[in-house]
């Protein structure tokens, strides 16, 4: 077993263990945030609720909970990343956020309705923080465990593991909810709460694999003023980005198209329900389509990147995303939406995997600040979620036309394409001379 701080690159056992973290935590992303918990939350709470002295609708409170979780992790993950880089504690924080998220998810079992509104909402917020926070440190392990020529393939492998594992658990949960008597459970409500337990146990249980095999944190002496050093690490990386126009340009492009990608992912089910009157089972079918097609998409575009380069692969993906937004504007039948959902699944895995691997290729060689660099990446994605979903809701509220909101998202993808056109990704073997250059 290799758990040294300087592992041999491309060790297949470590790579598989790294990918299993995606297998572990993607169950939360699918079951809790997309498929089951949102509907459960609306079902067990009143239409109008009072939370911390504020009167609001339950749907608004749910949205605020997500926004608040993203805001907190966006504010604090750069600091934690800087501390992790300086203190050599990537694995420590990976474990911390995983345990926080999994235990919070397990506690959702005790959320039964209005009497536990505050408890359930706060538990969901902490679970979201655990999920998002863990990803910062998970992503930062990629350039540490594999060589650059395998970034695309290994990144895609992680997403594929996540899609496959989460679908397996979702199918089990759906059977348990639809046929609770098969499991000795008296009703669907209790079965739904048991689903939250299975996600927490799945998350924590399979995370033990990467916890065992990923390289251990470097043992260092006592570090005085660690908090101050964390800020200093962030300042250093920020200054470096200012003088690295290639990284800066990619991050701006990533921010633009992520606003579109994440908004579509989060609000596709809402669009289907309101515009096309999809039922619960049909919405779950859409989620399964996204996940299953996403497996093939991640590998398909990884192969395209290996053959034609990251730049062409990403631009191709963004053109497809633009087409999805245009097609969604005209969709008026359920079968058409299923086709659009399949297209989303195809490029959803590809854009996420290639974005992560492309950014890894841009990082300075032998950098000791990979976690801090990735914290910028993750914070931008989280802020993009806030921007994209806010703009979507604002246009919907202003015009009463959700289709127009979808159409406007295409602007984000166009901006991302124009920024990527300025970049030229060099082959991996030329990385030591110039990773990327401006046209």
Condensed summary:
This protein is mainly alpha-helical and 439 residues long.
Architecture overview:
- The protein has 439 residues and is mainly alpha-helical.
- The protein is built from 16 helices and four strands.
- The chain has helices spanning 12-35, 37-44, 58-87, 90-107, 117-140, 142-145, 151-178, 188-213, 226-242, 245-276, 280-308, 310-330, 334-362, 370-399, 402-408, 410-420, and strands spanning 48-51, 54-57, 423-425, 436-438.
- The strands form two sheets. Strands 1-2 form a two-stranded antiparallel ribbon. It has a two-stranded antiparallel ribbon with strand order 3-4.
- A hairpin with a 2-residue loop joins β1 (48-51) and β2 (54-57).
- α1 (12-35) runs antiparallel to α8 (188-213), α7 (151-178) packs antiparallel against α13 (334-362) and α11 (280-308) packs across α13 (334-362).
- The chain is globular and about 55 Å long.
- The termini are far apart.
Helix content: over 70%
Question: N-to-C SSE series?
Answer: HHEEHHHHHHHHHHHHHHEE
Spatial arrangement of strands, main beta sheet: 1-2
Low-confidence stretches: 1-5, 428-439
Give the rounded overall mean pLDDT.
Answer: 82
Instruction: Determine the number of helices (DSSP H or I, runs of at least 4 residues).
Output: 16
Q: Name the quaternary structure.
A: single chain
Note the beta-strand portion.
under 5%
The secondary-structure class comes to: mainly alpha
Q: Note the gap between the termini.
A: 45 Å
Q: Note the main sheet.
A: 2 strands, antiparallel
Q: Which overall shape is indicated by the principal axes computed on the Cα atoms?
A: globular
**Estimated radius of gyration:** 21 Å
Total E-strand runs: 4
């Amino acid at each position: 077993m290799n758990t040294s701080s300087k592992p041999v690159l491309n060790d297949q056992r470590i790579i598989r263990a790294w990918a299993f973290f995606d297998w572990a935590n993607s169950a939360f992303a699918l079951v809790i945030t997309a498929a089951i918990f949102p509907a459960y939350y609306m079902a067990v709470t009143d239409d109008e609720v009072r939370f911390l002295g504020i009167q609001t609708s339950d749907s608004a409170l749910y949205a605020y909970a997500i926004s608040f979780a993203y805001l907190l992790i966006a504010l604090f993950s750069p600091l934690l990343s800087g501390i992790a880089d300086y203190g050599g504690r990537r694995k420590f924080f990976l474990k911390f956020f995983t345990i926080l998220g999994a235990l919070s998810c397990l506690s959702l079992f005790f959320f039964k309705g209005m009497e536990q509104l505050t408890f359930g909402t706060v538990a969901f917020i902490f679970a979201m923080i655990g999920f998002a926070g863990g990803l910062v440190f998970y992503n930062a392990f990629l350039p540490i465990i594999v060589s650059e020529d395998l970034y695309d393939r290994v990144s895609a492998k992680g997403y594929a593991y996540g899609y496959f594992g989460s679908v397996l658990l979702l199918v089990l949960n759906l059977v348990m909810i639809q046929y609770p008597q098969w499991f000795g459970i008296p009703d669907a409500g209790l079965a739904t709460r048991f689903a939250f337990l299975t996600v927490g146990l799945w998350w924590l249980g399979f995370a033990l694999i990467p916890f065992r095999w990923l390289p251990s944190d470097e043992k260092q002496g006592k570090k005085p003023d660690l908090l101050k050093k964390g800020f200093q690490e962030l300042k250093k990386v920020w200054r470096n980005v200012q003088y690295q126009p290639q990284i800066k340009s990619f991050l701006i492009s990533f921010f633009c198209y992520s606003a579109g990608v994440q908004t579509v992912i989060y609000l596709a089910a809402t669009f289907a329900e309101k515009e096309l009157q999809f039922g619960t089972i049909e919405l779950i079918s859409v989620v399964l389509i996204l996940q299953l097609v996403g497996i093939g998409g991640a590998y398909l575009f990884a192969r395209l990147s290996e053959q034609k380069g990251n730049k062409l692969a990403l631009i191709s993906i963004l053109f497809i995303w633009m087409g999805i937004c245009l097609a969604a504007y005209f969709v008026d039948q359920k079968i058409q939406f299923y086709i659009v959902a399949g297209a989303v699944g195809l490029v959803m895995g590809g854009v996420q995997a290639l974005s992560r691997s492309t950014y890894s290729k841009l990082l300075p060689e032998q950098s000791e600040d990979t976690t801090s660099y990735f914290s910028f990446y993750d914070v931008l994605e989280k802020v993009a979620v806030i921007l994209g979903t806010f703009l979507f809701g604002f246009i919907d509220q202003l015009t009463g036309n959700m289709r127009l909101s979808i159409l406007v998202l295409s602007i984000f993808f166009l901006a991302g394409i124009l920024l990527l056109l300025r970049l030229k990704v060099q082959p991996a073997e030329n990385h030591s001379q110039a990773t990327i250059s401006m046209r």
